[in-house]
Amino acid sequence: MEEDPQQTNYSFRIVYAWCLSYMKPYRGLFIGYLMLGILGSLILVAVPKCIQVFIDTVLPERNLALFYSVLAVLLVLLAAMIIANNRKNTLGLIIQEKTSRDLQQAVFAQLRQLGFPYYERHSVGETLTFFNTEIPAIHEIYRRYFPSIVQNVMMLVITVGYLMTISPRLSLLFVPCILLYYFSAPYFEKKAVLYIRSSMDEFKELGKKQYDSLSASLELRVHAAENWDIRRSLETNERASHHLFMHFIYINIRAILRRISVYGGAILLFVYGFQLIQGNMVSVGEFIAFLLLYFRSMFTMTTVVTLLSEQKVLVHKAEALYRFMKLKPEVIELLKPAALSAIQGGLEFRNVHFGYGREENILRGFDLALSPGQRVAIVGTSGNGKSTLTKLVSRFYDPRAGEILLDDTPIQRLSIGQLREAVGFVFQETYLFGASISDNIRFGNPEATDDEVEAAARAASAHDFIMELPNGYDTLVGERGNKLSGGQKQRIAIARMLIKNPAIVVLDEATSALDSQTESDVMQALDRLLLGRTTLTVAHRISTIRHYDLIVVMDQGRIAEMGTYDELMRANGLFGLLVLGEEEREHERREMDQNVS
């Protein structure tokens, strides 16, 4: 995933074309929308023509038959306009909803494609702004701005064309009005856009801070930092509000110029029109029709300019989303990936090198082979690439050099779906959805039956505590599972992994956050369940992996030592130092507990 560190600013044309590209599948509907819009514009032009005939012919001649004819035409035009507008609005709504749906699906698909590399480099608050700010901005383009601009431009072309047929001389009065607005309004529009951009940047930053505040509510209370957090948010809010206020100031100035252009032109029209009527160069009916269409044309023209200006603000908001959608995923699946008929669970790392972004390699020539059903533990001090290794197994990242094989097949050749179906994870921090326990377990296999959910819970030693809850498996766990203890959440995570029935299990410090007794209970459940499954465990407490088939000691991104627990202890090397350090920490903890008691 290559990101431009300079945060390239794309042109309005490029971003706008991208926004409208989601309408391409519905071009047939849009052509129908345009045709109905043209029909509506022609009807609106025909109405002043009927008024002209009424004034110039019906009234002077008192022609009753012609009067009824004009009245009938008006009624037909009115009915046709109602039908055309209703159908046009329906088509517009269909186009808007379909394009908005496609855009949201595309954003979700992009998030899934970018995966771990993106999530680890960007905050959740930043990602949420796509759904709170950028996507609604594009929805507004689909819903209001683009249809209105198209409709008004068609109306303007048809109306001005008809005005030229009535009186080319009167039509010349458009020129000074247009020039006044054209040369004065853009300056204020640009200033308004600059201020709204600054305002949106500040509001985006405010959104991140608000997310941080909600996520860190406990820490803020513990450190009595609520006032500091409020001041921090208020400062950002005040800057955003000031820029928004200045935006509206310039918008109002532009609106004043719009009215001056329209009504100033109307005054000139009355003066010059009176002279043309006096000279019998224009009839009264033609002047009235021209006057009606003049106001419609001027307001339409200035509306188009206003809409274009306001749309620029929305496109600026969409620019961040466009930049996001242009990101390339680091992990790319082959167009025709290989498929394994049956997965045995053999896993091999061959001369694997890896580092994050532009950083130096964390893994430097890592070699390790796991036989099907073998249990292997990875230990070492922090920063040696233990957790990084687990992320490579399911292709959350790809190595810079070397390869990883599943059953002798490079995982880059496999479909990502099959690979991740074959691997089950239990992380140090378990994420539970704010749903029922049953739903959280079934997340590992959405097709699982209630009996299978219960069987997985029993195997994970979770059934007993679940049945003690008020609603059993239907008990809601709260946001992120906050109604459950750490040990209970980990057992739910284990049940979720088991119901998936993976060939390979990866435990990334899955019990490091638990107390000793809870960890012992969870590890006993895991020991029973991992028999026959290839297991790769990143261990926090060495005491929990004594019985593993193989223990790998990592140092500086390489394997420093490797063997069984007893073999490594006899070697009295780096592993022995790790064990000694753990025993000293455990001894200090016990002394502290005794002092407290």
TrEMBL record:
Residue stretches making up the ABC transmembrane type-1 domain: 31-310
Cellular location(s): Cell membrane
PROSITE patterns (UniProt xref): ABC_TM1F, ABC_TRANSPORTER_1, ABC_TRANSPORTER_2
Entry-linked InterPro entries: AAA+_ATPase, ABC1_TM_dom, ABC1_TM_sf, ABC_transporter-like_ATP-bd, ABC_transporter-like_CS, P-loop_NTPase, Type_1_exporter
Topology versus the membrane: Multi-pass membrane protein
GO cellular component: plasma membrane
Example of a GO MF term: ATP hydrolysis activity
Domain ABC transporter: 347-581
TM stretches of this protein: 30-54, 66-84, 145-164, 170-188, 256-275, 287-308
UniProtKB keywords: ATP-binding, Membrane, Nucleotide-binding, Transmembrane, Transmembrane helix
Gene3D superfamilies assigned: ABC transporter type 1, transmembrane domain (1.20.1560.10), P-loop containing nucleotide triphosphate hydrolases (3.40.50.300)
Family under the similarity heading: Belongs to the ABC transporter superfamily.
Name of the protein in its database record: ABC transporter ATP-binding protein
